[in-house]
Amino acid sequence: MKLSDVKQILPTLENVEFQLENGTFVPEHFHVTEVGMITKNFIDCGGVIRNEKVVNFQLWNADDFEHRLKPNKLLNIIKLSEEKLGIEDFEIEVEYQSETIGKYDLDFNGKTFVLKNKTTACLAQDACGIPVQKQKVNLAERNNSSCTPNSGCC
Question: Which of the chain's termini has less CB crowding within 10 Å, N or C?
């Protein structure tokens, strides 16, 4: 989900709610402690130089149980970050602490923002020696009448 998507959704909401993919809700007294842009420059295992940019939201649970972030407040934080930091319309990555700091993609299910689990992947599979997984074929489903049992063709 891009920053522009969040900016369009926020005015339609009464409350800002975040939920993990497993259905667990981020406690409603969370704070958005950071909105920023992260630039990652790196070389993949195939030697290709890459550059990625994401908008970062950091969620934090405080002991402030009366705190509730309203959509307009988050929208103002986003607008300020665009103005002061020059944040652009990139995909959003959310940092949220469970056992450790996790990084999540962001989605919206019509009511709540959903923190989608991220996975690692090899970006240069053709260059790092990982064999391509062969496609499994069910021979019984193949329509090949020229090769039948005991025909000697296989």
Answer: C
Q: Is 150 left (phi over 0), alpha (psi -120 to 50) or beta?
A: left
Residue 53 near residue 37 (C-beta atoms within 8 A): yes
24-68, pLDDT tens digit by residue? 999 988 989 999 999 999 999 889 999 999 999 999 987 777 778
From residue 26, give the alpha-carbon distance in Å to each of 22, 31, 122, 130, 146. 11, 10, 30, 38, 61
Closest among 42, 29, 41 to 70, alpha carbons compared: 29
Structure tokens at 116: 């989608």
Q: Which helix (H) or strand (E) holds 82?
A: helix 71-85
- Give the pair of three-digit tokens for residue 26: 């981020």
pTM of the entire structure?
0.78
